[in-house]
Design goal:
Length: about 425
């Protein structure tokens, strides 16, 4: 457009064709609820516009302003599609029976099979997996704005704002649960006084009980695209291009990621929300929220040149460190056990998220991680065309213990409505 302004425009079209489930479940209650088990919505229009610019406002070109915006689309996890293809709850599907105790003699002896359905045990209710008819591909809006200033000495300082908005992100909801008509009150037991809930205090939450609206099935898990997320970050980078035997890169990022509890699993396992009728309770820090991250890497070569036989020991050394330090991943206080009188597991009987509704989501954090890697290289020149290099590398040189998971169980729910604090939390 102008000598000091460059503008880039683009448009991308995505089409993700999904194979349709081969088996249709003719259950009349499913049909009455508008649930079609042999159809997955193929989103036909997935246009992703892109725009970017670079502007040098000063005549010496030492300051550059860059920015951009784009819409991107994600794929649906194959394991999620697999569940909807083969777990339609059809009566023509495979039925499982469990034998134990007094019913054990009725079971077949391997490798024999049953000739008819056993009378001493029941098969239970089937689980149905299906897609929301309005399901959409995951969508990400990404945008950034950066200032890049050349400081001299082959060194550049860059300050950037980074933003990302997630839309139509996947989650799973059990829709075969009737609205709550009762509540349960818990009295906290904590002899140690170390838990997040005060000992002796009481907390009340909705209680989901039976029967299920559709008694022909157990869990009816609908794959939805109703989760939104946001990510905002400030990044500062200092880059020194290789000169005078030195190259280095510093980077610091402050960020905050929030969402409505996007399901992070690669398959459809269980409902992801705390309350199937109140998604607002799931809003909080993302499972991948890392507020502070610092990285450094560099290359340092020996600047001296020694002559004589000593050059074989003194010359051509190279040291390359890499340092990464960041906050640990967040996690929530969760429970074990069943709500008294509840339909399923979790503190309200819905079978969803096991965390406490009275403590914010992902308010706890694992210890910070620190990794320092180092390589040391020595090069021996052999005539003019060949070089022999000896390389020594160390990973996590200081043997810092980095946690990737912790026990999040904070309370055990007893049959008498008393969540008891577990000191191992």
């Amino acid at each position: 457009m102008k000598p000091n302004l460059t503008l880039n425009l683009g448009l991308r079209y995505d089409f993700d064709h999904i194979a349709q489930p081969p088996v249709f479940n003719p259950d009349p209650q499913l049909a009455a609820a508008g649930i079609v088990t042999n159809r997955i919505n193929n989103q036909g229009t997935a246009f992703g516009p892109r725009i970017g610019f670079a502007w040098t406002p000063m005549s010496n070109d030492r300051l550059v302003v860059r920015g951009g915006y784009g819409i991107f689309y994600g794929r649906i996890i194959n394991a999620t599609i697999y569940q909807a293809l083969f777990n339609t709850g059809s009566p023509n599907g495979q039925t499982s029976y469990r034998f134990s105790g007094s019913t054990l003699p009725d079971g077949p002896v391997f490798p024999q099979i049953l000739d008819a359905a056993p009378t001493s045990v029941s098969a239970g209710t089937a689980t149905v997996y299906f897609f929301d008819p309005n399901f959409k591909l995951p969508q990400i809006h990404e945008f950034n704005l950066s200032l890049e200033r050349e400081l001299g000495w082959n060194t550049v300082l860059q300050v950037s704002y980074l933003g990302s908005l997630g839309r139509h992100l996947p989650n799973w909801t059990d829709i075969n649960i009737a609205p709550s008509t009762s509540s349960v009150t818990y009295s906290v037991v904590d002899p140690t006084g170390q838990g997040p809930l005060k000992a002796g205090s009481t907390y009340t939450t909705n209680l989901y009980t039976g029967p299920r609206p559709n008694p022909s099935f157990g869990t009816m898990l609908e794959v939805q695209s109703t989760v939104n997320s946001s990510y905002n970050a400030l990044a500062v980078q200092l880059n020194h291009r290789f000169s005078r035997h030195v190259q280095f890169h510093f980077a610091y990022t402050w960020s905050h990621a929030l969402d409505f509890n996007q399901n992070q699993y690669t398959s459809t396992l269980y409902p992801s929300g705390l309350d199937p009728y109140n998604s607002k309770l799931d809003y909080g820090n993302s499972n991948f929220n890392v507020p502070n991250r610092f990285t450094f890497n560099g290359v340092f070569q020996s600047p001296w040149r020694v002559e004589g036989w000593q050059k074989w020991l003194a010359n051509d050394w190279q040291l390359s460190p890499i340092l990464q330090i960041q906050n640990g991943l967040p996690y929530s206080v969760t429970t074990s056990g069943y709500a008294p009188g509840g339909l399923s597991s979790s503190i309200n009987g819905s079978g969803g998220d096991y965390r406490l509704p009275w403590v914010g989501r992902n308010t706890y954090r694992m210890p910070s991680t620190a990794i320092f890697d180092l390589s040391l290289a020595k090069t021996f020149p052999i005539r003019e065309r060949y070089r022999l290099e000896f390389l020594a590398e160390g990973f996590n040189v200081f043997n810092h213990q980095n946690y990737t998971g912790v026990s999040s169980y904070g309370y055990y729910i007893g049959s008498d409505s008393t969540p008891t604090y577990q000191s191992s939390f």
